Amino acid sequence: MRTDVIRSGLSRRSLLGAAVLLPAVVVVSARSGHTQTAGSSRGNRHQTHVIRVDRMVFAPAPANIRVGDTVTWTNLDVVRHTATARNGAFNVDLPAGASASATMGKAGRFDYFCRYHPAMQSQIMVVT
Asked: If you write DSSP's letter for every residue of the chain in order, what string do you get?
């Protein structure tokens, strides 16, 4: 059975290869701890901070998170995790090998944990 994608010259094998490689690109950039900067329409600069979930540990705890910045958690483990704020400010689901993000909307200290593994705990500080 043919689809529009196959008619456009892409094979199912090409699509599967791309689907396999995409998570690898995310993991490589997350392992580097790279912080990306993006400009907003107001001229403010917001950053993306990467926290790795590896061997049942959230690390590193990024410094200098500002209101409006995005925190991206990348799960390098083979089991599902969450990054769940104790005060309900964010709840990020992290299937094995996946990444997910939350934008920090207010300043403060946010203690968070994994709902599936409550001993996994960390905190982030957000400043104005």
From this structure: ---HHHHTT--HHHHHHHHHHHHHHHHHHHHTT--EEEE-TTS-EEEEEEEEE-SS-EE---S-EETT-EEEEEE-SSS-EEEEETTSS-EEEE-TT-EEEEE--S-EEEEEE-SSSTT-EEEEEEE-
